[in-house]
Amino acid sequence: MIETITKAAILISFIFCGYTLKQMGLFGRDAFTTISTIVFNITLPATIIVNLNGIHFASNYLFISVLAIVFNLILVGAGYLVGKTKEEKVFYMLNMNGYNIGNFALPFVSYFFDSAAVLIVCIFDAGNSLMCLGGAYGLASCVQGQKGENMGKLIGKTIFSSVPVLSYICMITLSLLSIELPAPLMDWLKIPASANTFLSMLMIGVALGLSMKPQYVRMICTDIGLRLGISILVALGIYVGLDYSMDIKKVLMILSFAPVAGMACYYTAKLKGNIEVAACVNSFYILLSVLVMSTMIIILSQS
Q1: Tens place of pLDDT for every residue, the chain, 303 residues?
Q2: Helix, strand, coil % in the chain, rounded to nearest 5
Q3: Beta carbons within 8 Å of 301's beta carbon, 6+ residues apart
């Protein structure tokens, strides 16, 4: 238990380090863009490839990807229902949706658990990515009444433009075909992959913005409160109703409390929503997720 608490404290310290350096002015405005570009296009894809290479799994594990899509749709639907105006519906649909797996949950879980747990995280994120990198935006665009690309086209563009999503698709396909990548390539990829946890936590710290104006309190509390409530119900549903081993259930229960997808802020801005509120929701939920996921890992690791 002491070891688990220590590991959690180490990860939190990296987040605090990024936030402190930003407050000290050592990281400028472009720091987040630079770090996130490295993570999304280099260290995260390398981590996905390294963790999935040579791992074989039963085809029924692919149902976990379907579950991720279902969980996302539940959050999007709740956002639509709770919004009082069209603008609020669009905001909640984007900022309740999605799980920040690649830059938060994956390094978090991989730091505490073995490769079998990481496999479950990656399969979950394969479905999750389709929603938080295009699916939810397509639905929100329809609600807003924007003309242009339909949801299917948005998802298609996402698949062929996102390096992490392509990495998931390629590696899951290779795993199902029992094909392994050559050892020299894996040795090369292990170097950037080893930096993913540190850079991801540092990036989260740089992105944190905790200023909250009084007029935004209701939206922030509604968003975070409803998402947290749904996450609790999802975790209970996983524990009671899912026909997988307890080890898999533990990982999925932890993932259900992952932060809001990082792309939520980007898509909120794209649909001319309140980016300041979106940033606050994202930041507060990251802190909440650190607390809840760390606590769950400590409790579940003892059972």
Answers
A1: 566 667 667 777 887 888 888 888 888 767 877 887 888 889 888 988 988 888 877 778 889 999 999 999 999 999 999 988 888 899 999 888 889 887 788 877 877 777 788 889 988 988 898 888 777 888 888 887 765 556 667 666 666 777 887 888 888 888 888 889 999 999 999 999 988 888 877 877 777 766 667 777 888 889 999 999 999 999 999 999 888 889 899 999 999 999 888 778 777 877 888 777 887 888 788 888 888 888 888 887 776
A2: 80, 0, 20
A3: 1, 4, 112
Contacts of 221 (CB under 8 A, 6+ apart): none
Which residues contact residue 132 at a Cβ distance below 8 angstroms, ignoring those fewer than 6 apart? 72, 97, 98, 99, 261, 263, 264
Dihedral sign of CA atoms 270, 272, 276, 278 in order? negative
28-59 burial, b at 16+ Cβ within 10 Å, e below that, comes to eeebbeebbebbbebbbbbbbbbbbbebebee
Q: Give the C-alpha separation, 265 to 98, whole Å.
A: 12
pTM across the whole model: 0.80
In 3D, which of 12, 55, 62 has the Cα closest to residue 197? 12
Which strand (E) or helix (H) includes residue 258?
Answer: none
The candidate with the shortest Cα–Cα distance to 121, out of 177, 75, 164, is: 164
Per-residue tokens: 198:
């540190």
Would you say 98 and 264 are in contact if contact means Cβ atoms under 8 Å apart? yes
Residues in the chain: 303
Grouping H, G, I as helix, E, B as strand and the rest as coil, residue 284 is helix
